[in-house]
């Protein structure tokens, strides 16, 4: 069985670090913690789990800090997490099985990353990241912000999920501006952004309500026609969200349709187009798009995934649209399907009650 180093960079994570490390301490063989300037008890907590706690002077470069942590690892494979990530019990079991069965031909393992959840704790926003890599391949991190691990060779796609459990809210306001400020500092220094930088800078602008500027940079990213196809699709979706915030529904639908240039319509795109037609009471057109949303296989989508758009949400909208079209039987049918995904959803239960009273 191969041995695994866990590498983590941290700063002021005293509220979450113990929970994170406790979830993996018995399935890794080495823990490497790199502290980038904590002023709380983060380092003391880290030392409860490992002697390998290192200081690193923060220089607005996440990749540099992560590469520093990787250089301190000594085991066969390197596994990385953030301090507010955990492995749930089911995924711990899967990880142990992977550790027992992995062969040295595997250069990297991608895992799911669940970062948002509904009120029932079901993942609502997920994507894949390369989490476990062979140390001797010397893969490196790239990008000062929204960094990525540049891997190659034989990559195994695993069903193991890392769960994001953010608990520390004290510094949210400061942290929320951090990435945007790093990007703007780099621009101010005359740095030329890569296509990936432009995409993530656009996202930061959108998240900070600078919608017109975000649209400008999304278009700049798409005009370059470089970078990952999934990022191009997400750029179109995010640009559509900017237009919606600006009240420009015509350009919103144009941006959504543009995403189809890069692949089949993502369920989120189909649902958002369906929503636009539904708002205009064009129910037949809305139905076509909602039906398309549930027909696309999402298993192999490598980019961002919001499962609601391929499960309960389009079925709930089909329920509404068919009722408005006078097809009560189909309306009831689709509400039942939606309930299979969300059995306690108030809107779905209200529909059931409405149907019972209507046909009484």
Could you walk me through the main structural features you see in this protein, from its secondary elements to its overall organization?
GO terms for molecular function: transferase activity. It holds the Pfam family TPR_8. Keywords: Transferase. By secondary structure, this protein is of the alpha/beta class. The protein has 3 domains: 4-164, Alpha-Beta Complex (Spore Coat Polysaccharide Biosynthesis Protein SpsA, Chain A); 171-263, Serine Threonine Protein Phosphatase 5, Tetratricopeptide repeat; 283-360, Serine Threonine Protein Phosphatase 5, Tetratricopeptide repeat (Alpha Horseshoe), CATH 1.25.40. It is built from 14 helices and 10 strands. It has an 8-stranded mixed beta sheet with strand order 3-2-1-4-7-6-10-5. It has a two-stranded antiparallel sheet with strand order 8-9.
Secondary structure topology:
Blueprint lengths: L3 E7 L6 H6 L7 E6 L6 H5 L6 E3 L6 H10 L5 E4 L4 E2 L2 H13 L6 E10 L5 E12 L5 E3 L5 E3 L4 E10 L7 H17 L6 H13 L3 H14 L4 H17 L3 H10 L8 H13 L3 H11 L18 H13 L3 H14 L4 H13 L2
Parallel strand pairs: 1-2, 1-4, 2-3, 6-10
Antiparallel strand pairs: 4-7, 5-10, 6-7, 8-9
Helix pairs in contact: 6-7, 6-8, 7-8, 8-9, 9-10, 10-11, 11-12, 12-13, 13-14
Structural class: alpha/beta
Total helices: the number is 14
Strand line-up of the largest beta sheet: 3-2-1-4-7-6-10-5
| Spatial extent as radius of gyration | 23 Å
Produce a short descriptive summary.
Pfam families: Glycos_transf_2, TPR_8. The chain is α/β, with parallel strands linked by helices and about 350 residues long.
């Amino acid at each position: 069985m191969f041995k695994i180093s866990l590498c983590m960079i941290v700063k002021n994570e005293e509220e979450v670090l113990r929970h994170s490390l406790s979830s993996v301490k018995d399935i890794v063989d080495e823990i490497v913690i790199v502290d980038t300037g904590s002023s709380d008890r983060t380092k003391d907590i880290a030392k409860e789990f490992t002697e390998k706690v290192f200081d690193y002077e923060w220089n607005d470069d996440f990749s540099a800090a992560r590469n520093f942590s990787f250089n301190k690892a000594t085991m066969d494979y390197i596994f990385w997490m953030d301090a507010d990530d955990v492995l749930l019990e089911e995924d711990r079991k899967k990880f142990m099985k992977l550790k027992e069965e992995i062969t040295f031909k595997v250069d990297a393992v991608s895992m799911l990353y669940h970062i948002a959840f509904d009120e029932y704790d079901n993942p609502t926003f997920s994507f894949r990241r390369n989490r476990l890599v062979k140390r001797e391949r010397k893969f490196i991190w790239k990008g000062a912000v929204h960094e990525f691990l540049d891997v190659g060779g034989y990559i195994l796609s695993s069903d193991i999920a890392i769960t994001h459990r953010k608990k520390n809210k004290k510094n949210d306001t400061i942290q929320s501006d951090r990435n945007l400020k790093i990007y703007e500092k780099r621009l101010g220094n005359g740095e030329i952004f890569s296509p990936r930088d432009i995409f993530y800078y656009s996202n930061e602008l959108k998240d900070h309500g600078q919608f017109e500027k975000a649209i400008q940079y999304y278009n700049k990213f798409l005009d370059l026609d470089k970078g990952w196809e999934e990022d191009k699709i997400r750029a179109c979706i995010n640009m559509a969200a900017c237009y919606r915030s600006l009240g420009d529904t015509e350009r919103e639908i144009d941006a959504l349709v543009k995403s189809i240039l890069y692949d089949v319509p993502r369920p989120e795109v189909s649902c958002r187009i369906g929503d636009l037609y539904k708002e205009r009471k064009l129910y037949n057109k809305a139905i076509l798009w909602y039906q398309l949303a549930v027909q696309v296989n999402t298993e192999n989508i490598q980019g961002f995934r919001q499962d609601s758009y391929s499960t309960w949400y389009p079925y709930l909208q089909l329920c509404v649209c068919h009722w408005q079209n006078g097809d009560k039987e189909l309306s009831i049918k689709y509400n039942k399907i939606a309930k299979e995904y969300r059995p306690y959803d108030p809107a779905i239960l209200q529909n059931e009650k409405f149907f019972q009273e209507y046909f009484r």
